[in-house]
Amino acid sequence: MKRSSPSPNGDYRHLFHTIRRHGLDTVPRIKLLMKWVEEDPRDQTVIRDLRETLLEEIKLQRLDPDPFRKTAPRDEVYLGGAIRLGVMPHHGFMYGIDIISLIRHLLVMGQTGGGKTTVIKNLLLQILQVADAPRIMILERKQEFTELLAKYPEFNVLDVNHLSFNPLLPPEGIKTEVWIGVFTECMINYLDILEASSGFLMDHALRLIDIRKKEGTYPNLNDLLSFIKATKYSPMSKNGQQQQTVINRLTNLLHSLPGMFNTSRHIGISELLNDHCLILLHDVPHIGIQNFLISLLMAQMFLHRKVTAGLQGGLKNLIVIDEASSLFRRQDELKGHPSFISDVVRTARGYGIGLIAASQLSTDLSHSLLANTNTRMMVGGFGRSRDTDEFLRLRSCTPDLRDYVIRHPVIGKAFIADNRWPHIVECNMDNPALSPRLTPDELNQRIQDSFFRMATFAPPVPAEGPKQPVSPKPTPEPETVSLEIRTLNSMYEHHFVKLSERAKQLKVPSSTLKKKIDELQSNGLILIHKVHGRSGAPRDLYELTESGCRMISLPPKKMKGKGSYLHCFYQKCTANWFKSKGYHVDIEGTALGKNIDLIARKQPSGECVAVEIELNSSANPSHVVENLKKAANTDFIDRILCLVPKEPERRVVEKLVTKAGLRKRKPIEIERLWKYMES
User: Fold this and answer.
1) Cα(569)–Cα(566) distance, rounded to whole angstroms?
2) Alpha-carbon torsion (119, 125, 126, 127), positive or negative
3) CA atoms of 579 and 312, how far apart (whole Å)
């Protein structure tokens, strides 16, 4: 700031008021006064004001010392960069970052109104002025970034009504089965679909795709919804309840994201990646549906870049996400089921993708996001002290530093954990010069222009690879390879088929199949568990490992190890026994809104038997009692059958039933499983 001409009495007070109004802190003000003293050493007014300022600063430091002064960098080169974000107050050094550092992600946290969005806008405005800047995709929920549109006409903008893409269509180079697995996982994570219902959804989607491919077309979500509605299931059956769940979720998507059900236009992921794009999600009231759409777009972007471009040396695309705490949830990691986009955060930098995220919380953010982010900022303070503590744990922190941070939730003041410096850094962030927002009519026109510029008339159909000619007499080597894939596919669908029966299905000698199975086990593609049948002789249960599933390009079945496979095996054996006696059987039937292992109905008498299979009653006796109680409290069930594998467990369950008084409600029989096993 240039020195103004002194007033007749030599009073420079108005300069100090101007400086304070512009937010300059003490160190730059003292430097300015020192410069004026050097210009005119005889000016007692400036000398007096300099003395007063120094005394004021000394008094302030005594009353409220700033502990960050001790850990502040003494050289401005440590935390400088081409993108200027603010000034560190203790020495007046500029704080900045380089664009390439964003490939390791940036996270801005703080309470509402603290200045998070302002920091990100300042960052984006400077990036857009750089030649060969990375392509920016902003996924925003509050319509706060539309100020960028007036200054940059090349920025595309779409709302949910014009975001027309087919979420069932895999990105280029990705197998259909793999992509449908990712699609259903997004449904599990953000639309509250249980894994059983997601299996129902995935199965029907793949069946519909196979049907449509034979007709030379590719289905969309509208076709899938119609296909599932047209399939008939009993409302009380397991499939019937899963059908209703999936229909409800797809109907919600239809109302919230109509563009995704549109068949007339299609915007591919390459069009979204190759230009700057702002996607407005504020018209979607349900945050779960917003997160579902964001996760789909991020997954498509990641897989497309991974397959088409491979490993990258620079930053090609930059994703900006508001309110990231609901998207990257710590609870998912604690449950042992991290989302697909958590893996994207960990590996995206290898494919030229960086992330800028904002969040009001820190305690609810996934560890994968916090651990894989290079620069983390707290702007304007948190509303909860536990969020502050979570942030400060990113660096070593003394009680003085913590108290100072909690006492200074100033708008625009940031505390930064930057991997270039071992301590938390204090910084006063700059305010960017923004253009006026577009009027509603101007915004709608920009949306229309972007839509017609980016969309194509017909969605593409994935091209089928060239089919290999089938020789009537294959050579031994192709036969060996073919048998490996055929065997893995057979075991993926049917874990419990005997060796002789499986050999007959695959049309190979039993000895040949036995050698192939031993080879698959030694290569770590399958696991073999021994199961004792009715006769007592063991038979094999086959479970595919993750490597085996990758070999046949199918997603791993989410079952909890050997116990779940055995439970499913015993369910099928028991169901076959009841069917042979003239019963109609529902596996995982429903009573009082909860699942029962089997519900068997005798025709025409209508007798209804609930079957519960308990494999480890000693480890969790309360679970056994709860399972039997839900069947005992159901009116349409006449009697209950509890099956256990061994005699000691039968005695344990007998004591539990007697102690809980369950037989006062319904007849309960406790028997060994061997009676219901196949011979």
Assistant:
1) 5
2) positive
3) 58
